[in-house]
Design a protein that fits this description.
alpha/beta; 41% helix; 5-stranded mixed beta sheet; flat; 5-stranded antiparallel beta sheet
Length: 567
């Protein structure tokens, strides 16, 4: 009687799990005749030219068909051979022509999934990442924090913010995940005002140096790195109680998890939850260190592509890590040194302080809600925020921490909710207009009064519409000439203030006293300037057409450089 050899697929992760753990933009699913729930046992290289006997088996394997392109004549034979051997999937090079109809037909009639490797991805990298995903998706190795779907087993590999939020719920406190150099990798959402140390750590994206020295000299770090157990730092008159545990992979320290009381005592089982969390965090921190940077760059590129109107939005949404059929809104934030707002020139690179604020905002966005994704561009941060039913303005509260950074102003605009991916570019454009409106308003104030601000598009729609009109008029305006052009040119050449005087007069609806007070001059001085503007340049404000042209032209002249994004 033959003995039954257990099928390796019985306990293996599914193809869907493996693909979910690979880096975005690496593989495409072409045909899955049995779906993506098929189990996977291993990932191996496949030599299509190798002689095989009839007993060869590839049960549950992902075969990497190196050197085989989906449009090549041998692609069908390779797929059929893999199917006869029981392979879970076969991966081929996509090429420029795509799969032939005969290959798609053969795949649809078989059992083996057909995947393609995207251009620019090496086979060595594909093999490494698939095997890493296979190891880290084994449910027996890393148990869920609390069992079932509520644990970390449902988290995407490398989802450190999701891990932090999950641990925070179990511990009953605020969680920070740090690397061995005490730099912040992720932190849990803030349900209460953080204590001073947590705030400083988040704002600086690392534990303050003086605090690191204090922990080192007190022996706390030595205790933390030399044990597998939780280390406690009691509360004192400055900071709340802390629990910390090292995350290890063998003898290697990958980082640490810190729990702090968050407006309430830590849960009774907080230490036990941290021990389990440290084991569950191993694959996430390992993935972050090995693949996190490349994956983050690929996700950012995908987010930018969606905001620009991607040609293949569903595939790009997968690469960005968002649900393609879920509504999202776009939030745009710009950071500025508030001491130099009057000289800022739109969304350029920004300095170290501005970049640090954007780093904090990006961390805060990842902790704000599952599914939030971000992308950077100069001093600008884009956030895609999943919208919830009945929520009027998703993401509006993201400025809470950034407001605390000294000498920094953050302007954030919230675009309308996009029902699907096709609406993201319009939501982005609206959010960018909101930022421009807020920036121009702040630039018109004394520096001492400039402060961070956030607004929803509907709240500034009139001003945003004016910006759109000026953007359309500007190219034509530059090619024209006339009294307003002559006056603006004279002001630029001689430093006179005829244009500013006319603009103030128009803004005050012809009220000379009000306009003079805004300019901080005597009313007679203003009347003299207006009379000279008529005599020197022909700017007759009694003429409605001249008033219209003066209003448009002086608004455009105030932009300085002619850049629609400038002040």
């Amino acid at each position: 009687m033959p003995t039954h050899e257990p099928d390796r697929r019985d306990t293996g992760p599914s193809l869907e799990q493996i693909l979910g753990l690979t880096a975005p933009g690496m593989l495409d699913v072409v045909v899955t005749p049995l779906g993506t729930g098929v189990p996977v046992a291993d990932v191996v290289l496949h030599d299509s030219g190798e002689e095989r006997d009839g007993t060869w088996t590839a049960s549950g394997l992902i075969l990497l068909a190196v050197g085989v392109e989906v449009a090549s004549p041998e692609a069908v034979d390779v797929l059929r051979e893999a199917d006869r051997a029981g392979a879970a999937a076969v991966v081929m090079r996509s090429g420029s022509r795509g799969p032939r109809a005969v290959l798609l037909e053969a795949a649809g009639r078989g059992r083996t999934a057909l995947l393609t490797r995207r251009p620019g991805q090496g086979w060595t990298e594909v093999l490494g990442r698939l095997r890493t995903a296979l190891v880290h998706s084994a449910p027996a190795r890393y148990a869920a924090l609390s069992g079932g779907a509520d644990g970390v087993e449902g988290l995407r590999l490398g989802d450190l913010p999701g891990l932090a939020n999950t641990v925070a719920d179990l511990v009953g406190g605020a969680i920070t995940i740090e690397d061995p150099q005490s730099r912040v990798l992720a932190y849990s959402r803030m349900d209460h005002e953080p204590d001073p140390m947590r705030r400083l750590t988040i704002l600086g994206q690392e534990v303050p140096r003086w605090r690191v020295v204090e922990l080192r000299e007190s022996g706390f770090f030595q205790a933390l790195w030399s044990t597998d157990d939780v280390v406690r730092r009691p509360a004192d008159d400055r900071f709340a109680e802390r629990l910390a545990i090292a995350v290890r992979h063998g003898s290697e320290v990958l980082g640490s998890i810190w729990a702090a009381a968050d407006g309430r005592p830590l849960a009774e089982g907080a230490a036990a939850a941290l021990r389990t969390a440290a084991r569950a965090a191993v694959p996430h921190l390992s993935h972050h260190r090995t693949w996190g940077r490349a994956a983050a760059m690929a996700r950012e590129e995908a987010v930018h592509a969606l905001l620009d109107g991607a040609a293949q939005p569903v595939r790009t949404a997968h690469d960005a890590g968002i649900a393609p059929h879920r509504p999202y809104t776009v939030l745009v934030a710009e950071a500025y040194d508030s001491r130099a707002l009057g000289t800022a020139a739109g969304p350029g690179a920004g300095g170290d302080a501005e970049q640090r604020v954007l780093d904090v905002l990006a961390l805060q966005a990842s902790a704000y809600r599952p599914g939030c994704v971000t992308a950077r561009s100069g001093r600008r941060l884009y956030v895609l925020v999943p919208a919830r039913d009945g929520e009027p303005h998703p993401g509006r509260t993201l400025l809470a921490t950034a407001r605390s950074v000294p000498h920094t102003a953050v302007f954030a605009g919230v675009g309308p909710v996009a029902a699907d991916l096709s609406g993201l570019p319009a939501s982005r454009e609206a959010a960018e207009l909101v930022v421009r409106v807020l920036r121009e308003r702040a630039a018109a104030l004394p520096l001492a009064e400039a402060a961070s601000a956030v607004a929803v598009f509907g709240e500034v729609e009139t001003d945003a519409s004016v910006l759109r009109v000026l953007d359309r008029v500007e190219p034509m305006w530059d090619s024209l000439s006339g009294p307003v052009h002559a006056m603006a040119e004279h002001d630029r050449a001689h430093g006179s203030e005829y244009g500013a005087s006319v603009a103030a007069y128009l803004d005050a609806f012809g009220d000379t006293g009000t306009a003079a007070r805004r300019l901080n001059v005597h009313p007679n001085t203003l009347r003299y300037r207006l009379r000279r503007a008529r005599e020197l340049f022909g700017v007759d404000l009694a003429d409605p057409s001249v008033r219209l042209l003066a209003d448009l032209g002086l608004r455009l002249a105030a932009r300085g450089t002619g850049d629609p994004n400038s002040l």
